[in-house]
């Protein structure tokens, strides 16, 4: 019994030390170095999910942030921001997005995939939107600096509040245009720090960013990433919308997941509420009622 407790404490301490190393985004996006990430995955990693608290939650958030997947705050609580950040990380690593950090996700955190561009010859400063994986990546100096989960056009007809159209986020090459700071409310809903890039279609923060395409055409992103994306997307920055090819899914065989003894902690998070906009074939209407061809 004593040896089991000691092993659990040692592995938790080792992981805490490793995940708090000063990885920068540039280093984190490259393949892991043999010296730092070749240690075998401990069996004591706890499966984390919404409501989980403890040092392992904090360490997971810190690791995700270092890898370019901002989780919001670094509190030791598994909140909604972390849940969507985990989705983004799982999708970027060929895993099915699930509402937990399980053994395959821990392994991916130890040995992450390199983030590869959708547009090989894209400009060094750009934003890429992947409609298949529902991911947005910002690139700065030719390197990925932020990856976030998104929800794009639902690809279905709609009629809401007297406005009808087809909910789609069109493929193509665009540039950031008009920007609106803070919250703005229009005919089809509210947007947080929207940046328009294709007529009335914008990238904007939302409280409703499900795992599937659900918008009227805009690119919804989690609230905790909205301001950073807004600051990056200055007028004229390229926005590439693509649909990536589907590679083979990476999901390693799960190990036995035993619960480790970890400190408990709490951190409150206050959710907010919102919704989004539309586009018509040949004409779109933004959330301020303006029409664009």
UniProtKB/TrEMBL annotation:
Q: Which residues form the active site?
A: 204, 218
Pfam families membership? PG_binding_1, YkuD
Cite the L,D-TPase catalytic domain residue spans from the record: 125-242
Q: In which pathway does it act?
A: Cell wall biogenesis; peptidoglycan biosynthesis
Q: Where is the signal peptide?
A: 1-30
- Annotated region Disordered: the residues are 244-293
Q: Where is the composition biased (Basic and acidic residues)?
A: 244-272, 283-293
Return the SUPFAM superfamilies for the record.
L,D-transpeptidase catalytic domain-like, PGBD-like
| Residue intervals passing through the bilayer | none
The reply on keyword Transferase is yes
The domain of life for this entry's organism is: Bacteria
Q: Which UniProt keywords apply?
A: Cell shape, Cell wall biogenesis/degradation, Peptidoglycan synthesis, Signal, Transferase
Q: Return the protein name.
A: L,D-transpeptidase family protein
